[in-house]
């Protein structure tokens, strides 16, 4: 029973959630607001999103594999483990999507990017 008190897979998911809140989201929300576009590292968003997606993927897969290997499960523990795996998979999908969008922004490909930009000099003044 002592091995159920502190499961390394669950501890890694706890670390991943702390990583998501503090370094990742704080940087992703505050850097564009307080740093100029020149001071904002071009690839930082994609790197942070990719690392966070990798952490969530490794965490929920490790916990799911550990859960599958259990010979017994009792009480609310099973439901909590399944919920943690589902939440981890959802977070992985979200951060994978944002990483893909960040890479598309770096490459200049994205939604609405194929339309020609309106020139300021062609604006009508009254």
Describe the fold and architecture:
This protein has 126 residues and is an all-alpha fold. Helix 1 packs antiparallel against helix 2 and helix 2 packs antiparallel against helix 3. The protein has three helices and no strands. The radius of gyration is 21 Å and the shape is elongated. Helix content is 66%, strand content 0%. It starts with 7 loop residues before the first helix and ends in a 19-residue tail after the last helix.
Provide the descriptors you would attach to this structure in a database record:
126 residues, single chain
How does the SSE layout of this entry go?
Blueprint (H helix, E strand, L loop, with lengths): L7 H27 L9 H25 L8 H31 L19
Helix pairs in contact: 1-2, 2-3
Would you kindly provide a brief summary of this structure?
The chain is an all-alpha fold and about 130 residues long.
Q: What is the number of helices? A: 3
Q: What percent strand? A: under 5%
Helix content: 55-70%
Mean pLDDT: 81
First and last CA, distance: 79 Å
Rg on CA atoms, Å: 21 Å
Element order: H for helix, E for strand? HHH
Instruction: Name the overall outline.
Output: elongated
Per DSSP E runs of 2 or more residues, the count of β-strands stands at 0
Oligomerization state: single chain
Can you tell me the residue ranges where pLDDT is under 50 for at least 5 consecutive residues? 115-121
Structural class label: mainly alpha
Largest sheet: none
């Amino acid at each position: 029973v002592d091995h159920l008190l502190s499961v390394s897979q669950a501890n890694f998911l706890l670390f991943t959630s702390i990583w998501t809140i503090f370094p990742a989201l704080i940087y992703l929300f505050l850097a564009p607001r307080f740093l100029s576009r020149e001071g904002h590292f071009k690839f930082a968003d994609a790197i942070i999103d990719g690392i966070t997606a990798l952490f969530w993927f490794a965490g929920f897969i490790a916990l799911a594999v550990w859960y599958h290997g259990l010979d017994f499960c009792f009480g609310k523990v099973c439901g909590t483990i399944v919920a943690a795996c589902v939440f981890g998979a959802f977070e992985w999908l979200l951060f994978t999507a944002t990483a893909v969008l960040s890479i598309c922004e770096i490459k200049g490909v994205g939604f609405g990017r194929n339309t020609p930009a309106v020139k300021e000099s062609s604006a009508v003044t009254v």
